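Homework-ish question, so no full write-ups if that breaks the rules, but can someone show me the predicted structure for this set?
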Amino acid sequence: MVRGKLYVLSGPSGVGKSTAVHEVMRRHPTLRFSVSVTTREMRPGEVEGESYYFISRQRFQELLDNDALLEHAEYVGNCYGTPEEPIDRMLEQGIDVLLDIEPCGALQVQKRRPDATLIFMAAPSFSEIERRLRGRGDTPPDKIEARLERARWEYQQAEKYDYIVVNDDVDHAAAEIEAIMLAEKCRACLRLHYLKEAK
Amino acid sequence: MVRGKLYVLSGPSGVGKSTAVHEVMRRHPTLRFSVSVTTREMRPGEVEGESYYFISRQRFQELLDNDALLEHAEYVGNCYGTPEEPIDRMLEQGIDVLLDIEPCGALQVQKRRPDATLIFMAAPSFSEIERRLRGRGDTPPDKIEARLERARWEYQQAEKYDYIVVNDDVDHAAAEIEAIMLAEKCRACLRLHYLKEAK
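A: Not a homework solution, just the prediction itself:
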């Protein structure tokens, strides 16, 4: 059984990660998406175990105390995290797992799991991020500047990633993510078993 | 102008490299294939500048003396080599270049050009190589064992490559080569220019 691969897709808010993830998952039904835990309240339309696992602060603290989170962050007063154990279980079963998390979390995963492949999603141009943030209409104007400042910091971290995918078009971005996932499966170090017979 | 990428496909004789290369080139007309030089005589059906550039021993020695070959080898009394200058010219023009060379040459390229991506083509099983060598009918039975011994040595080098592609089916192998080529273009170190605007 070849172990599954862990892929982390990250990038600034507004760059179009979730649309691309949706397209990649559509093309690869065997790929599994990791569901995060959060302490924030469920919003209308959200589904327990699909959008998030909604847990108490106390439970979150227990997960932290047990070192059970692959990455975690606090955002506007709420905690978010990725439980490690379900991911390990899937990888051991040969299932590939995709995480869609914030850049801060992505770098935590990189430190903890050097076998993970990190993909940064960039906009075709930085001004496009501003345009999308304003166009989405869910961010108050006074928060836009803070979001952009954060996006700038996130861009500065991108050189620590393995790959950069440019989201000029969702099909194109999904094709690049697919290619990266397939190429990573072809890494020589993961396929040495094909050579054994010749020894 | 983003510089082109140099890909090296290698693997034992009889593994099906040229069929896969043909398929990859068909799908990617902008990819260029590097033509080697050789001192052996032209065979019926071969075309100067397509199969090889046919040159004299003296000219070959001049190329060696001028350090103008990316890799070279002698095989049953004839010399073969890959001129470096035409490849550099294409890469500078942003053109990707694919080399289909013997494993000995591939490792020479790796030492000389750490920016090259090395892909080893393996058969689905080693016994398949023997079957193909015998089935092709162009190798005398007494040479088969020597070829297999060589293939065994070549397999032992495969862990030095970046990727291993398994040629169980030409479409599948070509798809893996394509994915590797696209993923390598997405390497963060080659796309840092997308981040500049945010600084």
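Now go work out the reasoning yourself. Hint: The beta strands of chain A are 6-10, 32-33, 37-38, 53-54, 69-75, 78-83, 97-100, 117-122, 163-166.
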